[in-house]
Amino acid sequence: MDNLVIPRHVGFIIDGNRRWAKKHGLPPYEGHLAGYNALKDVVTETADAGVKYISLYTFSTENWSRAKEEVSNIMALMMRLFKTDVHLLLENDLRLVVLGSRDKLPKKMNDAIDRVQELTAHCKKSTVAVCFNYGGQQEIVAAVQQLIEQKIVAADVTPELISQHLYQPDVPEVDLIVRTSGEKRLSNFMLWRSPYSELLFLDKFWPDMTKHDVADIIEEYSNRHRRFGG
């Protein structure tokens, strides 16, 4: 397709790992592992396409209610991203930042997050915003709490001021949100940054995503006419 419109920021709601595993007669961990492997291909291809910000909904504040073994396995995969696979980020010139609460995370996890953010801070190709222990409502609450602590008077509170106090405030509004697995909801993802986001819901499970899907996603976005309320 000629005249492609490249979104500045694409957000991926990663969904369907467990159902993929069940479909293939595998334990949930195998679904999350397959999802992690798909993640690497999709992120690098999205960055190669020219998308400057790529956000990933990897673990929500509600996901703690899952089985202890499953949560532990997800944490191990996240540590792999933050620690073992840092070289993949550096090789692809990808800056990584983490959006979410640091509460409930073990010290070694917080240390790994700090280190990967520091090691990739110079990378310029794209920013990968990992939403981890994240909830959109909690993000807004945390921003408002900061304003209260700073004794900002009500008359001075503006959308721009709240935006400046979000997690990683340099991450802009989301142009396109893509959710896999056929579910059609945001599930508390990027609530503040999505007032005019285009939404795309795919029927395939996340582990079935490949780099070839990225071209289709961008082509679909290019066919949208965004009016921003006008």
Q: What's the overall average pLDDT, rounded?
A: 95
Strand arrangement in the largest pleated sheet: 3-4-2-1-5-6
Helical content (DSSP H or I, runs of 4+) = 40-55%
Give the class from helix and strand content and strand pairing.
alpha/beta
For the termini, the CA-CA separation is 27 Å
Question: Number of helical runs?
Answer: 8
Largest sheet: 6 strands, parallel
The general outline is globular
What low-confidence regions span 5 or more consecutive residues with pLDDT below 50?
none
Number-wise, the strands total: 6
List the secondary-structure elements in sequence, H or E. Answer: EHHEHHEHEHHEEH
Strand content: 15-25%
Radius of gyration: 18 Å
Brief account:
With 230 residues, the protein is an alpha/beta fold. The protein has helices spanning 17-23, 28-48, 68-84, 86-91, 107-119, 136-149, 159-163, 211-222; strands at residues 9-13, 53-60, 94-99, 126-134, 176-179, 198-201. It has eight helices and six strands, in the order E-H-H-E-H-H-E-H-E-H-H-E-E-H.
What does this structure look like?
The longest helix is centred in the first third of the chain and has 21 residues. Strands 3-4-2-1-5-6 form a six-stranded parallel beta sheet, sandwiched between helices. It is globular, with a radius of gyration of 18 Å. The mean pLDDT is 95. It has 230 residues and is an alpha/beta fold. The protein is 41% helix and 16% strand. Helix 2 crosses helix 8.
Main attributes of the structure:
16% strand; alpha/beta; 41% helix; 6 strands; six-stranded parallel sheet; 230 residues
